[in-house]
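Sanity check

After download, print the first record. It should look like this:
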Amino acid sequence: MKHLSNEAVVKSLYRDFAENDMKAALAAFDPHAVFVRPGEGDIPFSGTFAGMEKVVEMFAVTNDCIDVKKFVPSKFCSVDDLVIVLGHDEAAVRKTGKAYKTDWVQLFTLKNGKITRVQVYMDTLAIFKAFQP
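Expected structure tokens:
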């Protein structure tokens, strides 16, 4: 059985999210994966989420808080066990109705075809402002 390249695993993850296939998307993660998003304390879906239960919780909180209008991964770069993705998203905060736009970088570390770590870099100030009444 042929294994997907690390970049193909990450591209499949984005495709599964776009198709709202959470079961397939979550299958890309190692059970002990760590997902790190900046803005902890100021943005509800930010922080360090260790283990599958916390990663699932983070995605649920994100889904409850924002309405994603656009989410576009535009450039993929792979080096050994690391996949770097550049992209852009636009969303509206459900509670305030305010929208934000941000470019982002997501760094994926993979081992044995599974995502073990995600580190996100994004414009947390723009997102924080959209959460303010």
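If your output differs, re-run the checksum step. Summary of this record's structure: Residues 6-131 form a domain with the Nuclear Transport Factor 2; Chain: A, fold (CATH 3.10.450.50).
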